[in-house]
Amino acid sequence: MPDQSEMDVLAAARDWKAAGHSVALATVVKTWGSSPRPAGSHLVVRDDGSFLGSVSGGCVEGAVVEQALGVMKAGLSTVLEFGVTNEQAWEVGLACGGTVRIFVEPVQ
Amino acid sequence: MKAETLERVLVDIEGRCPVVLATNLESGEQRLLHRGDGETDREHADIEHALRVDVCVTTDEEAGAQVFYQPFNPPLRMILVGAVHIAQPLSAMATLAGYEVTIVDPRESFAAADRFPGVALNVGWPDAALESLGLDQRCAIVTLTHDPKLDDPALHVALRSDAFFIGCLGSRKTHASRLRRLGKAGFSEADLERVKGPVGLPIGSRSPAEIAVSVLAQVTQTLRKP
User: Which of B3, B28, B70 sits opposite A40 (nearest CB)?
Assistant: First the structure.
């Protein structure tokens, strides 16, 4: 599955970790309806807020990065869900009307 | 994810070894599984499906903590036998679609680097060349020469591999005689059914580039909707 860009994301996770950063990895685990990135898509986040990759068309990345910073601090994985029916929909959600479930984990 | 797990995934991808990352979405616990691994028959089947169709699989919510299986397959490869005109647009399009392309043609005037900039060329005899490439489930082989002397040895190797796609350019008539030759060489009915000929979806292609579109479309269809 991994095309070159997905491999680049995983390699960045490894390299940032090796360089001494705290790192979290977000993975799309499920999508419903129309959503731009399929299950297996990755977003890697660094402790300074830098990130690489994508888990949507840019609609929820901001929120995922924020949650990822918390995951790094806590050292515990979590599952996020975004969609139009989500209570957060007024601020972040998928314009396309789909729903996406994202697993966010610390790289340890 | 443990840094060592991440490292092993990257090493497996690099080494063309198909691997599946299984994540318990509740506990975050992860395992790396290879083809044939799996604690239960169900898990064994989920791994096989994830690798074969190249798609992520999540177990049912009803069955307790959900497990997410993500396959990491080796890169797709396309091997074109015959450095003919159609190979020029087809190699370029296949590269754009994410394939590592190799063109095999022992005729060095055909397999000339300036005709195929940036594409790997192999001037070995097709059977030896394909043997040396180590065909696997992520390979598509398309013969383009119309010359049995070159196409057939490639097909013999392709049919003995797990390649997901085998196709041959040529008319229905030449395809029928190709299948007869392969049958005489000892290949079974099931083997012959793997060979798509004339290769390509019937979209009325005329130019080499249009034929390349129809071939790449059929390869994509076979990959994504097997």
Answer: B70
Number of domains present in the structure of chain A: 1
Check CB contact of A15 with chain B, cutoff 8 Å: no
Give the structural domain span for A54: 4-107
The whole domain housing B126 covers: 77-224
Asked whether residue B120 falls in the same domain as residue B20, the answer is no
Instruction: Check if B58 contacts A (Cβ < 8 Å).
Output: yes
Pairing type for strands B77-81 and B100-104 reads: parallel
Whether B55 sits inside 8 A of A107 (CB atoms) is no
Q: What is the pLDDT of residues B164-178, one digit of tens each?
A: 999 999 999 999 999
Over residues A45-97, the pLDDT tens digits come to 999 999 999 888 777 888 999 999 999 999 999 999 987 544 554 555 565 66
Structure-model confidence comparison of residues A20 and A38, the more confident one: A20
Q: Is B70 within 8 Å of chain A by CB?
A: yes
CB contact A32 to B (< 8 Å) = no
Could you give the ipTM of this predicted complex? Answer: 0.83
CB atoms B25 and A39 under 8 Å: no
